[in-house]
User: What shape does this take?
Amino acid sequence: MMAIDLTERVGLPVRLVPAEEGWQLELGDGVQHEKPSARRITDITPVLKNPAADTPKTLYWMYRDVRLPEYEAQIFASGLRYDLTVFNPGVLCVGGKAQEGDEWNKAAGHYHPYTTTGKTFPEVYEVLHGRGLFLLQFVDDIFVIPPKVTRFVIVEVQAGDLVVIPPNCAHPTIVLGDEPLVTANWVARAFDSQYTPIKLMRGVAYYIVKRGDGYAWERNPAYPEAPEPERVTASELDRWGVPTDEPSYRAFLRHPDAFRFLVRPT
Assistant: This one.
């Protein structure tokens, strides 16, 4: 495995580098961020299709509040935070023996809290490397258990795609194939992600499982009912006016007003 330079795609000096347990990011001199944190498979046992799955040990690394010092004041004043995440490829399985029907590696999934407008905070995601899926589970009320799922969308994404996560939906990320998936996101910094409603339901309404080299979905039996998934590409979704002609980090610095809806959703 060789290091992959993502500087041009990110807009910051960043490399994807092989590590002891898969892949991590190497940020260039001067780039500030919080201490990276890892999500292990034991951390998301409550939302796995197969709670006995023990491989891979490390699912993904999160690098939060990434910024250059000269733009720190502008980013902080906006009320936003820029993060990077690198997901290891692979299938969630027992003893490293992947089988048909095992889940592809995934994030735990969460909702965002409500704003004063009665909607939850949206988020902007950008795919920097690899391919995967964003699952959008729309509900009437994020705190009702079981929730009433009004719409379930599977968004197929690859490097270069940008997706706006709308209000009032859960959104786990899924990794497909044998390459790591690297994402960036812009989100309001003044809240904590809501993981508990997803844990109580053992995940979202559908599990994404391996079918040959592709994927299929299987209903999570914890949900009494759920609509059939819609499958779309990133280009079919509303981007809410977010520029897509340059990396989102640079786009924010040039057009901060285009990201203001992330802290003031209407």
Observations:
- The chain has a mean pLDDT of 96.
- The helical segments are 7-10, 72-78, 196-200, 248-254.
- DSSP finds four helices and 18 strands in the chain.
- The first helix runs from residue 7 to 10.
